[in-house]
Specification:
The protein is of the alpha/beta class. It is built from 12 helices and 12 strands. Bound molecules: glyoxylic acid (GLV).
Length: about 325
């Protein structure tokens, strides 16, 4: 008897078809929209395996509707959408996609940092809106990235990849992390700093820490007030790490120079969100890992976990 697999999104057929060998598959038939919660709760009623995206909350409520669930595989490295202790309590396994998106995400973080510092989206709007009349010295002047100090909060795989890119721009790298990264300090000259010191001394603060109970609202009004008035804040981790109201007020009052955000507390972000009214905020729709090669590799890690489970083999990349 084949196992029942539910997929919460329409994924490209090339990743789904090989699974038919082991699974009876049902999937939400839309690629771009999230499955409505009530439909998801109904769909998991008899499934043994669930393949989800970060838009799907796998929590107590969902688990209480899924008595046969044995495995959840998540198309992301971050797994704040999954209540891991609740899974553990029920002996349900879960996997994610670490490693394969490190460089792609670090590239995007650096792109966002450059775009924010050099006002690239604002400059493009200026040209397209017909505002470009001549060249003049103080036109669209931004901040230098080369030689500046970058402070990275969260020095995991992606944080370290961002830091290595920063070295290429002759930046001084400060970092804050639960654990010291002695090897990276010795090899690249990265400097450990307390959160306060990092916020006070950095021209660019980049958030790369995972989202969990210790990092919810980590950057609030008090922390933003420690930053220099001409500093830039970049977040490509998870929206809830920053208090968005506090960020809006800080920017509005001219107490911070700009922010670059790939992630938001609520995604997709509402078009009337106050942060979107500010010209010095660069916004992206959570595209950190969005290259064809990387998204393919992420899907393949999930497929491999599903194939291994189907064949009764041990699973890699477990998070439970
Ligand atoms: C994307 O945000 C991920 O966690 O992979």
């Amino acid at each position: 008897m084949k196992k029942k697999l539910f997929i919460t999104r329409k994924f490209p057929a090339q990743f789904v078809e090989p699974l038919e060998e082991h699974y009876d598959i049902e999937q939400w038939e839309e690629e771009e929209t999230v499955i409505p919660r009530a439909k998801l709760l109904a769909a998991v009623a008899n499934c043994e395996v669930l393949w989800v995206t970060i838009a799907d909350q796998v929590d107590e409520e969902l688990l209480s509707h899924a008595p046969n669930l044995k495995l959840v595989t998540n198309l992301a490295v971050g797994f704040n959408n999954i209540d891991v202790p609740a899974l553990r309590k029920r002996g349900i396994m879960a996997t994610n996609t670490p490693g394969v998106l490190t460089n792609t995400t670090a590239d995007l973080v650096f792109g966002l940092l450059l775009a924010t510092a050099r006002r690239i989206p604002e400059s493009e709007r200026y040209l397209r809106e017909g505002k470009w009349q001549s060249w003049y010295p103080m036109q669209l002047v931004g901040k230098d990235v080369s030689g500046a100090t970058i402070g990275i909060i969260g020095m995991g795989r992606i944080g370290q990849a961002v830091a290595r890119r920063a070295k290429g721009f002759d930046m001084k790298v400060l970092y804050h992390n639960r654990r010291r990264r002695h090897e990276a300090e010795e090899m690249y000259g990265f400097c450990y700093a307390s959160l306060e010191e990092l916020l006070t001394k950095s021209d660019f603060v980049v958030i790369m820490t995972p989202y969990n109970k210790d990092t919810v609202g980590l950057i609030g009004a008090k922390e933003l007030a420690l930053m220099q008035e001409d500093a830039v804040l970049i977040n490509a981790s998870r929206g809830g790490i920053i208090d968005e109201n506090a960020l809006y007020n800080t920017l509005k009052n001219g107490k911070l120079w700009a922010a670059g955000l790939d992630v938001f507390e609520q995604e997709p972000v509402a078009l009337d969100h106050p942060l979107l009214t500010l010209p010095n905020v660069v916004v992206l729709p959570h595209i950190g890992s969005a290259s064809l090669k990387t998204r393919t590799a992420m899907l393949m890690l999930n497929v491999n976990a599903l194939m291994a489970y189907g064949q009764g083999k041990p699973l890699s990349n477990r998070i439970d």
